[in-house]
């Protein structure tokens, strides 16, 4: 299998997509942690430090153990990437759409 080089005209989309995805993941994770551990911290079952440590472990394990399955679902079950590879500039169109979807959320 040969490595596919990314054209320089598309590098900006990867950088912008990574930055936006990181910011969204940070915000979504913070919201989910507050929902999950808010009552435990509020009732003093866990300290804030314990809740942060437990949340970090759970988020990390979820990303490592289930991240590939989520990617496969998006790649095969939601977006048909093979269709984009059959047309001219398909990869560029796919990346532009993904960045637009990230920016629109």
Explain the overall architecture.
With 105 residues, this protein is mostly helical. The chain has a domain of 56 residues. Helices cover 79% and strands 0% of the residues. It is built from four helices and no strands. The model has no long low-confidence stretch (mean pLDDT 81).
List keywords for this structure.
single chain, 79% helix, mainly alpha, 105 residues, 0% strand
Largest sheet, strands/sense/barrel: none
Label the structural class.
mainly alpha
In total, the number of strands is 0
Unreliable residue runs: none
The rounded Rg comes to 18 Å
Helical fraction equals over 70%
Strand content: under 5%
Order of helices and strands: HHHH
Mean pLDDT equals 81
Task: Tell me, briefly, the overall form.
Answer: elongated
N- to C-terminal distance: 35 Å
Number of helices: 4
Subcellular location: Membrane
Family: Belongs to the inorganic phosphate transporter (PiT) (TC 2.A.20) family.
GO molecular function: phosphate transmembrane transporter activity
InterPro entries: Phos_transporter
